[in-house]
Automatic annotation (TrEMBL):
Cross-referenced PANTHER family: DISULFIDE-BOND OXIDOREDUCTASE YFCG, GLUTATHIONE S-TRANSFERASE-RELATED
InterPro entries the UniProt entry points to: Glutathione-S-Trfase_C-like, Glutathione-S-Trfase_C_sf, Glutathione_S-Trfase, Glutathione_S-Trfase_N, GST_C, Thioredoxin-like_sf
Record-stated family: Belongs to the GST superfamily.
Protein name: Glutathione S-transferase
Span of domain GST C-terminal: 85-206
Length: 206
């Protein structure tokens, strides 16, 4: 098994954390994040999308970080992280999809402007709108965690917690105005004893 990506990228980190939970240690190859290009012909032959991470497991080549996480958990038979029953699985996957579509879309502009310093994301009004939407969605997550009293989908830690926590770590580290969200803070602290959380989420990388 081989994972192509870079440990500074949020999507690679969620896969690395999942591997840590599963006791897997795939061979890694640096791609993206300022290392080897994701646009050279050799990489595009593996993933025409030109994005990381990419998992190579025998003859299987898999892209999209959340799909890779789902595959690895199913491969290892870890129904605690992704339930086998349709309703339980859908509950976890719905929050994973929310992270990939709604939450990540909200933070892109302000993160690229204030952390990555990309000139295409320097408009102050657009950054402010990004901050407002990001905080709105984070408040929604806080309300959810108040309701569950533990983890995103209920009393048990699942894949939804992994993929959302890396985005929350980014929210905590981006220079911007943030509301006080006690349930989110308690949830992040609740995961502090997980080695994958310490190595690949709360690891001083936004």
């Amino acid at each position: 098994m081989k994972l192509l990506g870079h440990p500074s990228t949020i999507n690679t980190r969620k896969v690395l954390w999942t591997c840590a939970e599963l006791g897997l240690t795939p061979e890694t190859e640096d791609r993206g994040g300022g290392t080897a290009s994701t646009l050279d012909p050799a990489f595009l032959a593996i993933n025409p999308k030109g994005l990381v991470p990419v998992l190579v497991d025998g003859d299987l080549v898999l892209t999209e970080s959340n799909s890779i996480c789902r595959y690895l958990v199913a491969r290892e038979g870890r129904a605690d992280l992704l339930p086998a029953d349709p309703a339980g699985r859908a509950g976890v996957e719905s929050w994973m999809d929310w992270q990939a579509t709604e939450l990540n879309s909200a933070w892109r502009y302000v993160f690229m402007g204030r952390v990555r310093k990309h000139p295409a994301f320097s408009d102050a009004e657009a950054q402010a709108a990004s901050v407002a939407e990001w905080n709105r969605l984070m408040t929604l997550l806080d309300t959810r965690l108040v309701a569950t009293g533990a983890y995103v989908t209920g009393p048990q830690f699942t894949l939804a917690d992994i993929v959302l926590a890396v985005s929350v770590n980014r929210w905590e580290m981006t220079p911007m105005e943030r509301p006080d969200l006690p349930a989110v803070s308690a949830w992040m602290s609740r995961m502090a004893d997980r080695p994958g959380f310490r190595s690949h989420c709360r690891n001083a990388i936004p």
